[in-house]
């Protein structure tokens, strides 16, 4: 799964994803949390890459703008075409990319109670993209809320060791697959959802300060001494 991550600032995202236009201005965030407004890369109606901000936690179009009572920050790969919350955006091709420089995952320690947070980065992409879906839902007052969810899948070897309870990981796109993810038919886009090679992933123990979403500074990703 993916429940907390680090996002670059607007300028870095625009450079990395060659955005034609973007509806945002924001600094880097070192502790992006569920329900935050997050930067999203998707296609405009004209078929060009564009950037916007969306609520993290998908609100289906039929929900009248009201967030579901269950968590929708992650969409499981196994139910993309079946689950009520995912099948609409999946079938309509409402796919997007959430830019990141890394994400956090918690490892259950030997005592069976305490957890050690790790910061996960890639050694072949300084800025990468989570495969994601987006949707638009109309409130009773006529306004619309745009929201998104990160696709998750079974963990690779490294992530199985770190996320050692549920054994899940976010779907991370290879750099060369970004355009296809945004433009392809669902059956072709699905083929891009592969476990990222653990040889290209680096897990670093970090401070438990990251456990608190209000903490948001560069010290969160600094290596921590682990007893």
Short description:
The protein has 227 residues and is mainly β. It has helices spanning 10-17, 87-91, 157-162, 178-183, 186-190, and strands at 5-7, 21-22, 29-32, 37-43, 49-56, 74-76, 95-100, 102-108, 115-122, 128-138, 144-154, 168-170, 172-173, 201-205. The chain is globular, with a radius of gyration of 17 Å.
CATH class of the domain at 5-102 and 126-155 and 167-196: Alpha Beta
CATH topology of the domain at 5-102 and 126-155 and 167-196: hypothetical protein yedk fold
Q: How would you classify the quaternary structure?
A: single chain
CATH superfamily of the domain at 5-102 and 126-155 and 167-196: SOS response associated peptidase-like
Would you count the extended β strands for me? Answer: 14
- The percent of residues in helical segments reads 10-25%
Structural class: mainly beta
Radius of gyration: 17 Å
The low-confidence runs, each spanning 5 or more residues with pLDDT under 50, are none
